[in-house]
Fold these 4 entries.
Entry 1:
Amino acid sequence: MKSFKSTAWLLPQPVLIIGTYDKEGKPNAMNAAWGGQWDMHEIMISLGSHQTTDNLAVNPEFTVTFATADTLVASDYVGIASGRNTPDNMQKAGWTIEKAPNVNAPVFKEFPMTLECRVKQKIDESETGYFLVAEIVNILCDENYLAEDGKPDVEKMKLITFDPVHHTYIQLGKSIGNAFADGKQLK
Ligand SMILES: Cc1cc2nc3c(=O)[nH]c(=O)nc-3n(C[C@H](O)[C@H](O)[C@H](O)COP(=O)(O)O)c2cc1C
């Protein structure tokens, strides 16, 4: 085994797109890889200091959507262009924006699935950022991405993950097993 010094190589990492409104209702988006499920109805995201955190300070509601092969370029763009100094970042991203039905935050219609969220807790808050814990208020899924059982079909979405080793995006592939089930073979 080769050893490497400690770094942010937890694998695989999501490509979350966080949607917020500023105090005037102007939409913004940023890319975040350092996030995950916190509890059954809550998520967590490690946030630096961004336009997004400015927006959350005045309006603690946001959306989280999951980047796909089809939305990759603009998803990466909102990870390198801040709304703080790129006021036309949403025009450049080119997404269709609607207000979310249950929170005061934008939905980007090109993405298959979106969580509507409300800030619950900011842990270790400082001027460099904080760890955000947020309640999932509601989940939206484009009807084109539903499976036969009526639930979201993750395989259809062409989701991408972030590779923090080589800074690439990798498209997810096919389902290859059944969770809480295949392991029973060894019971
Ligand atoms: C692949 C990738 C992952 C990122 N992950 C995070 C993250 O987890 N947390 C964070 O604070 N910033 C992260 N960023 C940086 C922000 O997306 C970036 O600073 C963005 O421009 C902030 O936008 P805003 O100022 O408009 O909110 C990531 C960027 C990229 C490209």
Entry 2:
Amino acid sequence: MKIVDFHCDVLCKLLLDERLTFQNGKAGALDVTYERLKASETILQTFAIYIPQSMNGRLEPILESLDRFHQYVLSCDEMVWVKSAKDLEACVRDDKIGALLSLEGVDGLQGQTPLLRTMHQLGIRAAGLTWNHPNWAADGAMEPRGGGLTEKGRLFVKECNKLGILVDVSHLSEQAFWDVADLTAKPVIASHSNARAICDHPRNLNDEQIRRIIGMQGMIGITYVPWFVSKEEVVTVQDLLLHIEHICALGGEDHIMLGSDFDGIDRYIKDLTHPAEVANLREALLKHYTASQTEQFLSGNALRFLSMQLPNE
Ligand SMILES: [Zn+2]
């Protein structure tokens, strides 16, 4: 069974430490590696450009991250760059590993819409307006004042819609989420967020938000960040299943995908510590769902969504 994963932070690690390599690297240095993507039968991995707070707010680190993507990721034999529905189709047909680029926080674009168009030209196909903190576009999920979108943030969402960049609501404040939901002409994604009813964390989605994403035909990437899954000391794959069950109960069976957050976390769900261990999640799912449902969660839903939402060419 193929896997699609909509969020990992491996580019951030490659940005911070040039000695790391994506292929044939030092054991344990990265969660997501070329070898593990192959072993896990990943058909598509989204690579987020996340800039650490100390370097954030400038364009250069974003461009450097793009360089790492080309140097380390796309240089691997079976990796192919997915920028369009046509690329995705070819990737599935030829049984390659697709790589999609997303931007996690637009701080470095400094409110300039032309730079967003440049990002699209450089292959960015999904973008979250903020990380956890506020910026020129919106307030993030951890900002106590809980503001929504700024005027520039609104322009940004409209431009994303026009360009064919998916808007990612995962890190937004709740108010900013609703501002985006009211404004967007295209379905949004929450690339790596779980259900707040199961684990009460500001990074998770409440039932109203989940229903709204489902209603607009958007997607929710179930994430393996242990503290978004459960408050328990040891978090298991079974705990993760509760989030899937909850979203299904709200009518979201066709709107569930995966958004691991590998390489963005330093604690893990037990037996779910890198892409090859997604096999353990698959086994657990198969005990509760049919093979076809399991396949939809692991890849089918995401592939169907992307084939409709990515630019054609
Ligand atoms: Zn994140």
Entry 3:
Amino acid sequence: MELSPFYDKKVECLCCSKAFPTTKIRSKLVKVESTDTDFCPTYSESSVPALYYNVFVCEHCGFSFTEDFSRYFAPGTKEQILEQISAKWVKRSYHHERSLSQALDTYKLALVCGTIKKEKFVTLAGIALRIAWIYRKLQNESQEQRFLKMARDQYIESYSTEDYASTQMSDTRVIYMIAELSRRIGDLDMATRYYSKIIESQRIGGEAKLVEMAKEQWQLVREEREKARASAEAV
Ligand SMILES: [Zn+2]
């Protein structure tokens, strides 16, 4: 019998403390064919899209979260979630195979809940980025741009408050994301400024792979600037 890529896991809701089942993916059966320069994965046809299963949606109260959420609720935030999420929650479960649009729903719920809960900027940035990726797959460019900008702004907040310090994100990676997302939303000044920070960090032993990527993307920004200049002159 073939091993199913899915398995069930019981999760305890961070908000109402009730248990609910969620669908998880066997990571060794996930095959990424390629990744974009902002790390958006494209899965091989036979692979389960692991990206769709990062958000836990509590079927009881609607609170939606990822593994990056902290257990701590700042004073008043739980009441706000009860009022704005749970009171309006129509009981439903995302405990099954998810379509792209269901995955999008779960990330949007997590973004709303994380924002009310005042989660770390780096966590909110990661959620907004994944919403942008889903819109990229749906070829909805205006929504993709909107969420890329939201993610970029949250990474800037994260960088200035260093709230990524206890996470898996390194400072080089946060800087890279600010640069790359700025490039993608056409903020070439900001992109240039942050790419050069990474390239400078090479001297103090920055992460080699990211430094290489930053150099390539910086070159792209230069070309985009030249293009913009040439078309401005042609007018
Ligand atoms: Zn709950």
Entry 4:
Amino acid sequence: MKEKLEQIKTSALDVLKSAADIDALEEARIRFLGKKGELTAVLKGMGQLSAEERPKIGALANEIRSSIENHIDTKKSELAAKLEEAKLKAEVIDVTMPGKVQHTGELHPLTKVMNNIKNTFIGMGFEIAEGPDVELDYYNFEALNIPPNHPARDTQDTFYINDNTVLRTQTSGIQIRVMEKTKPPIRIIAPGKVYRSDALDATHSPVFHQIEGLVVDKGVTMADLKGTIETFLKELYGESTKVRFRPHHFPFTEPSAEADISCFSCGGKGCSMCKGEGWIEILGCGMVHPKVLANCGIDPEVYSGFAFGMGLERVAMGKYDINDIRLFFENDLRFLGQF
Ligand SMILES: [Zn+2]
């Protein structure tokens, strides 16, 4: 019996030594110390022992039981510590690892240039005005001194909704709406989409953006126009930019001019960007035609004003050296992410 007990002890300690987890320990406890366990089975045979042997074997059995229990406890805390260590290792954060960059998106290049232009004019005391994209013929043409059958209508291929409603071909109609409702002094810029039935190519799009500007007050002169435009263009393209004005014709301004800037690509020496001329045409402008002021109920004998208009895409293409207008509308993130 004594031998049997010693055998149980040896095999129990072996099993415990190789137990890999808490489940294996519990299995071993049941196998050796449980109600139907090996040690219990041996003790059940104690009745056959002599009175002399019984206490000795009993003491030995108790000793073996507590030895096995001790081993189980020790192993249990060992396994728990190992588990804790593995868990900590898995959860550890290496603060020296580079972060994961979250792509947050960014402003469209046209929006950036538009904001830039707006801020420049707001800094000069201008306000932002808006008008409808679907516009009456009257505001888009007639009030701007472009009556029916006027040749200027042919230069703007117009989308007609019906006989007297159009998709606006220019933001100039907003000037009229503002002048009808506002007593001078007026200082506004009017940014917005305009529509022309042009075929899409590298420099034309049936939808593009214009920014219209208007100043009306007593004693406004061509010198105010030139100063404002020059300040704006230098702000946008850099202080070293040269600006020149060429006489031009628009029905709604008199006199009219086009403003050119020295080429941002070659600085004026001549290159493919400026077609060898050293200058790039950037906007149209002029003194508001007296007839237009009168159309809006502003007395041209008392007030004068100037207006200007430019295409946002053209400005952005120049600023960022982009050679195809279609890139703005294709929404290719590889392109849009460069600005
Ligand atoms: Zn050039």
